[in-house]
Write a structure and sequence with these properties.
heterodimer; A: 179 residues; Rossmann fold; seven-stranded parallel beta sheet; two-stranded antiparallel ribbon; 6 helices; B: alpha/beta; three-stranded parallel beta sheet; 21 helices; 42% helix
Amino acid sequence: MPLADSWQTAEVGGPKKASVIVKPEVADAMIKRAKRPVLIIGHLAAEIDLDDKKMIDYLLDLAKKGNIPVIATAHTNQYLIKRGYHKAGILPAVETGHRLCDPAWKGIDGKEPYDLAIFAGLPYYMEWTILSGLKHFATHLKTITLDNTYQPNASWSFPNLSVKDWLENLKAIIGNAEG
Amino acid sequence: MSWQLRYIRSGIPDLIVVDEQCIRADVLSEAGQVGIPVIATSEKNCLGLTDRTRDPADEIVADIAGGTVAGALILDPDKVGEVAVKTVCLTASQHKKRQVLLAVEAIIEQAKTCTQCKMCRRACPNDLHIPDAMKAAGKGRTGMIAEMYDECIGCGRCEQACPQKIPVHTLIVSAASGQIRSEKFLMRTGRGAIQDLEIRNVGGPIVLGEIPGIVAFVGCSNYPKGGKEVAEMCTEFSQRRYIVCTSGCTAMSIGMYRNGEGKSPYEVSPGEFDAGGIVNVGSCVANAHIAGAAIKIASIFARRNLRGNYEEIADYVYNRVGAVGVAWGAMSQKAAAIASGFWRLGIPVVVGPHGTKYRRMLLGRADRKEDWYVHDRRTGEKVYTGPVPEHLFFAAETKEEAMVMVAKLCMRPNDTSKGRAIKLTHYIDLHKRYFGTTPSDVPLFVRTMSDIPVTMKKEIQEILKKQDWKETVIPDPSMLKSQVRKKEGA
């Protein structure tokens, strides 16, 4: 299976494709370099099993350790609340994509514009189209996806990874965020 | 449309009659593989069949029943009925003996040839875990592959992608054969247009907001997680005393769902166009009846002229009629066209996550106060109304998000305080249930203290206090300057 092809074969990317995150340090550097990152968590994060936890648990670790604000799309917030996290902003995924295109949007907390959007846990095709919109209409913004499927429209994306490799990468990114 | 494949592969039909839209291009070859004859009935979709319109009916029946032809093109509807019935009378007993679906042993043998290349999953629009199901089936456990039946949209792309030529879709349908055999449902008949008399009964409460809204579940069946979700949404809004309309494939999906007592939503809710009713207007072409109901409200209650007056009618509907369309399985361009027929009339449309592929959402910005002013027809002043309705074309990620959004999009600038309080109750209640919190944008929808739902008064008053909320007037709203009654300089 080609590692840097769209996971869903119907979603054919354009000539400008995401750089592949070949090692977790790449994602670390992107996140640490960002002045105002935001983590956008879709509902699938609460459904996907990773080891003995859910994907959302790892994403929450990253948000807490990296002090990254969270936007919960769909009904994801109820899973965050169950985990004791009450700080997430709630905004549908398509609205998030729409507002991120506006360089003057000061974020869900009204503080200042985001310069890095980290996506995870959205349905593949939905994230694909939202990232496509951002690639074309939000040139002020960098995007990363932390899913284990290659998203050609992001600035940076993991390749299509096995769950085992994905988990190792996520753990490394979270560990580095703490340090 | 895509469920045609599972229906054909199931071997259930004795004969297939197709008209002119929503027909798979391979229906004739698929039907031929399981020995089902096809009658085409439209010159727009002849399927390459010989035109037998002028031949005697009995001659056509003899040819089809005898198996000398795969089907026929008949452009006379009466003759189609005669040929179809006579043919089935002759062939049905033979068809009943036919074994089309695979036995469990055959499913397991096919699954064993899977190499776990994952191309099927990557081709699947719903990203179904087909390789995992194949692995389990190869070891004799066919439960997982049978479970996929509910979420599979039946497109068959998995088979096209499989380098081993495994008939994946047939495996899914065969594994779920027990479920297929039990698929017998009671369906509310598509009833056609909403009559003027019915509009007179409910138009007032709708315009004043006392019936919280009209929610229309329409469109194709390419659902992200099966048809159950659309039935659950339909039931929820019916129980909340919204008027629910259904049409097309969605109307059928709703009839296929049963509650704990074994009843479909149609058996639980009445069929009147009134609060709590579930009205099946008919096929997806009958969607026009739902839009027509909104137009009739403008005509009957505000005496808006119907001819050559789209602008005024859309303005009326947008500002006063709390209607929302939901096309949960929208994926085709046709569904997008139907949606645009609604939103250009001022009726917001919520589509499922696949709807993002349209790349043409119409999203408002609730955070931009300057976007939400209307003319007050009484005074001519520009008045802030809050973001109602916030969006006109919106793709929801999940059923839960769609339900909260539907409740929110039913709010209109014209709502009376009583009506707004009812609508807010539903919005806040659904938001709390699915998102776990009171919505942070509540202050945008409260115009006066009377808008606050009685049971939530204390909680919302505290939120308003924190956000420096100020009371606004409830206008006689219009986006058209021409609708202002007060003359300039008067």
